[in-house]
Amino acid sequence: MSETKIDDTRNRLIEGATGPWEIVLGLEVHAQVASRSKLFSGAAVGFGGGPNEQVSLVDAAMPGMLPVINRRCVEQAVITGLGLKAKINCWSRFDRKNYFYPDLPQGYQISQYKDPIVGEGEIEVERDDGSVFTVRIERLHLEQDAGKSIHDLDPNFTMVDLNRAGTALMEIVSYPDMRSAEEAAAYVKKLRSILRYLGTCDGDMEKGNLRADVNVSVRRPGDPLGTRCEIKNVNSYRYIQQAIEFEARRQVAIIEDGGTIRQETRLFDPGKGETRSMRSKEEAHDYRYFPDPDLVPLELDPAWIKEIEAGLPELPDAKRARLVKDYGLSAYDAGVLVIEQARADYFERAAKGRDAKLVANWVTNELLARLAKDGLDIEQSPIPSDDVAGLVELLEEGVISSKIAKQVFDHMWAGEGTPGAIVQARGLTQVSDTGALEALIGELIAANPGQAAAVKAKPQAVGWFVGLVMNATAGKANPGAENAILRARLGVE
Ligand code: MN
Predict the structure, then answer these.
(1) Residue 75 lies in a domain
(2) Ligand 1 centre from 456 Cα, in Å?
(3) Are 131 and 276 contained in the same domain?
(4) Does 321 lie in the same domain as 298?
(5) Are 228 and 167 found together in one domain?
(6) CB 55 within 8 Å of CB 162
(7) DSSP-based three-state secondary structure for 174
(8) Cα 7 to averaged position of ligand 1 atoms, centre (Å)
(9) Closest Cα partner for 274 from 266, 265, 283, 284?
(10) How far is the CA of 272 from the CAs of 213, 243, 246, 275, 394, in angstroms?
(11) 21 and 132 both lie in a single domain
(12) What is the pTM of this model?
């Protein structure tokens, strides 16, 4: 693996009382594997079951029950590793990570310690300004999720729901290659996008199917790494950023006060916008890791890995490059479109045979803004891709002006039909008939001699007449024809 490619000039420094500080961030993302059944049992995965209805005897850790590895979960981990340009380890092993939790009936989590299924890889991440940085992946390992303790159903008891117990997780560990809260959020966004393209995790952060443990430390620029604190289970981009901002400033304040940072696990409280101590950080030896004697090492056939690699879909980076090359889009617009595969597909369907840049503008500006406002995904768009293509076709042919197109789009959004039908029904066709425009403009100039004289003295004032014509035609005048006639009649160059 190459040296870190972090561009230090872009680091965002915190200005402390005693000088600047650099934030150093590494993330451990837990991504629930998209699979029908659990990592070591045949119990169903997913929402919908009542409490403890999706629990096998293995998940409940009944004595004598033995785990059996789920081939599909292994395949998903391999697909993900390949998507992260990572090394796939043909020999890996499962270990027991021992700790007590009421929702972990085994008394240990089956995880991978020294020999994970996936080794080092990397992800290219775009910042908001379009610049790109690399985050190196240290490893990806498979492990079981725990169940859920529910504290608010009963005043006297804690309830336990084991439906999630034993569900397969991929823990994706990055190197500490991020230097700001924005970079960390951008990394999670990109990782989520890749996982969704690969179909290995649905990335539903609200349901906790993708959550990040954020390791935060601060140091003087150029110094060795400082002591880190780990903020557990942060499950939105906004919370990730808030937690990092708060935690970094907390650490700077302690050090500047002469204190030292204690390595610990902390929780983020979204209500208060702060992190608080949960427990002192365990060291690996506290967990007494040892190879799980119920499971043989996992040996993968290199030919199987090759086969999987050949079936990988086009991923966001490659798709973005292709949209730029084939459709002439800006890198920014292409980036907005490829973050979700469904968006890129929608764009490509609408752009077929049309002015692709115009289509991209309508999709990225109008459509995505409205979808976001109503909390809809592009799959739920009330406007099908064919109708965006139809709207752009009307614009290309000069049937409507771009101003009218916005109105047509409103009607399309309201479900009034295809753009062609809306333009017909509402009489929105652009007035390009120069005879009619000539007559109208002649009347308007005659009725406003003072303004006409003013335009002759000050040509910029022609805009006053443009507004008048637009009002008189309800915005349907062809702007090119209108301008030419006005300028000729008013004697403006
Ligand atoms: Mn883990």
Answers:
(1) yes
(2) 75
(3) yes
(4) no
(5) yes
(6) yes
(7) strand
(8) 29
(9) 266
(10) 19, 10, 11, 9, 52
(11) yes
(12) 0.86
Domain assignment of residue 309, yes or no = no
Q: How far is the CA of 143 from the centre of ligand 1 (A)?
A: 7
Give average pLDDT by consecutive 10-residue segment, the chain, 493 residues.
45 85 97 98 86 95 95 98 98 96 93 98 92 96 96 93 96 97 97 98 95 97 95 95 96 96 94 89 82 97 98 97 96 94 97 96 96 94 96 91 91 94 86 79 89 85 86 81 84 76
- Only one residue has tokens 């879909």, namely 313
Nearest to 94 by CA among 115, 120, 75: 115
Residue 262 lies in a domain: yes
Q: Is-contact 329 356, C-beta < 8 A?
A: yes
Contacts of residue 324, defined as CB under 8 A and 6 or more positions apart, other chains included, come to: 330, 331, 334
Q: What is the DSSP letter of 477?
A: B
Residue 77 Cα to ligand 1 midpoint, Å, equals: 14
Q: Can you give the pLDDT at residue 484? A: 84
Structural domains in the chain (count)? 3
Kindly give the distance from the C-alpha atom of residue 171 to the centroid of ligand 1, in angstroms, as a whole number: 6
DSSP labels for 25-45?
EEEEEEEE---SB-SSS--B-
Q: Which of 426, 448, 472 is the last residue of a domain?
A: 426
CA angle 104, 105, 109 (to 5 degrees): 50
Domain that holds residue 291: 5-304
Q: Establish if 189 belongs to a structural domain.
A: yes
If asked whether residues 145 and 94 sit together in one domain, one would say: yes
Say whether both 281 and 361 belong to one domain: no
How far does residue 30's CA lie from ligand 1's centre (Å)?
A: 7
Structure tokens at 233: 């289970």
Residue closest to 423 by CA, chosen among 445, 442, 400: 400
